[in-house]
Amino acid sequence: MQLKTIKKLCCPFDKSDLDLQVLAKDTKQNIIEGILTCNACNRKYPIVYGVPIMAPDEYRQIQLEQPIVEKWKLEYDIADVKLLP
Ligand SMILES: [Zn+2]
């Protein structure tokens, strides 16, 4: 996903702005892997294969998201990621 598109996204819970941690880009500088963090509620939304996984809490599948984050922790040496506050 393009950076300018990601910048337009907001938290589905409280509509606040999101901080982007970029983990991987493709050759066209599209964000392929990353983590969006809400400034207000501290929810985190992974970007997987260029697609931000952003759903309200009741539709999130943390059991599917968490293994991806665990892989990134090994791959990119990032700090622990708590998806929900
Ligand atoms: Zn939020």
Task: Briefly summarize what is shown.
With 85 residues, the protein is α+β, with helices and mostly antiparallel strands. It is built from two helices and four strands, in the order H-E-E-E-E-H.
Explain how this protein is built.
With about 80 residues, the chain is α+β, with helices and mostly antiparallel strands. It has one domain (about 5-75). The protein has two helices and four strands. It has helices at about 5, 60-75, and strands at about 20-25, 30-40, 45-50, 50. A four-stranded antiparallel beta sheet has the order 1-2-3-4, covered by helices on one side. The mean pLDDT is about 95. It binds zinc ion.
Can you tag this structure with a few keywords?
alpha+beta; 4-stranded antiparallel beta sheet; 85 residues; 27% strand; binds zinc ion; single chain; globular
Layout of strands and helices, then pairs:
Elements: H1 3-6, E1 18-25, E2 31-38, E3 44-48, E4 51-52, H2 62-76
Antiparallel strand pairs: 1-2, 2-3, 3-4
Bound molecules: zinc ion.
Zinc ion is lined by residues 11, 13-14, 16, 38, 40-41, 43.
Helix vs. strand class: alpha+beta
Q: Largest sheet at a glance? A: 4 strands, antiparallel
Strand order across the largest sheet? 1-2-3-4
Q: N-to-C SSE series? A: HEEEEH
Fraction of residues in helix: 10-25%
Low-confidence stretches: none
Distance between the termini: 25 Å
Question: Care to count the β-strands?
Answer: 4
Radius of gyration: 12 Å
Total tally of structural domains: 1
> What bound compounds does this protein have?
zinc ion
Number of helices: 2
Q: Mean pLDDT across all residues, rounded?
A: 95
Classify the beta-strand content into a percent band. 25-35%
Shape: globular
